Amino acid sequence: MKQPLRKDLEPVATSFIVKELIEPHFDPNWHFHPHYQLFLVEEGTGTRFIGDSIKPFGPGDLVFLGPNLPHLWRSDQAYFNKQSGLTTRGIVVYFSEDFLGNDFFGKQEMMLLRQLLNHARQGLEWNGPTRARAEAALKNMTKQPMGFDRVISLLTLLNDLSHASDYRYLTSPGYTNTVKPTETDRMQLVHDYVLGHFPDDLSLETIADLAGMTPPAFCRYFKARANKTFSEFVSEVRIGHACKLLINGKLSVTQISFESGFRTLSNFNRQFKDITGQTPSGYVKTYRQL
């Protein structure tokens, strides 16, 4: 039987959870949960899916997610090879909105923190000095014992993030999670198949059959849940892969376009500009300036 998409955390006695993750690969399941989640990637590369956002990730990637926002950090395929010797590491913090009491964030002094929590429902990411400070704070929290000091450390970090301006929203303004907690992981099957076959010519009929639907029904289903068409989703996966190859710098743009599933360089350049807002060369230049 397929597992439900909703993910519930194990009950703990503390007010919030701080975990160091060290695994061959990150959790490969597309899921959501009723907690806020702050996640830092320390080691590992891949593609992250957050709501209707698709982007490559690597060390230093820092995001903050609100409750019930579907997400998946899909490690690159090499991490699933047991003989590769590769590993992933990260730090994750989970907390509920009432982890300090029902009315704590409703107080006047908490206005900026309350705004931060509201913004997190669209997903947030940071770059630059804020990300560096948050990374240091998260690493420090993993060394602290459970207690008052750790609570103060989390509030101090959230306060810092609430004052920062170098953030970006991850999902589109109109995105909402339409997946019901009782719905099985049909979308997981789609994610897995596309991630395993995006360099090839993908057949809508094959994908629809995998999901147990007719092609028209699948297109309506996917658009309602992903806030984009299936073809747009595939293009973003391909461009996300191309971004990683560009950053790696070992292949030419023409080679990258074919490795990413595009059959013509002109189509690759056009879709790259549509999705990232930059040319491939402009993207590399921007990345090196971060």
TrEMBL record:
Residue intervals of the HTH araC/xylS-type domain: 188-286
Keywords annotated in UniProt: DNA-binding, Transcription, Transcription regulation
Q: Is the keyword Transcription in the record?
A: yes
> Which Gene3D superfamilies does UniProt cross-reference here?
Homeodomain-like, Jelly Rolls
Q: Which GO terms describe its molecular function?
A: DNA-binding transcription factor activity; sequence-specific DNA binding
InterPro entries cross-referenced by the UniProt entry: Cupin_2, Homeodomain-like_sf, HTH_AraC, HTH_AraC-typ_CS, RmlC-like_jellyroll, RmlC_Cupin_sf
The protein's name: Helix-turn-helix domain-containing protein
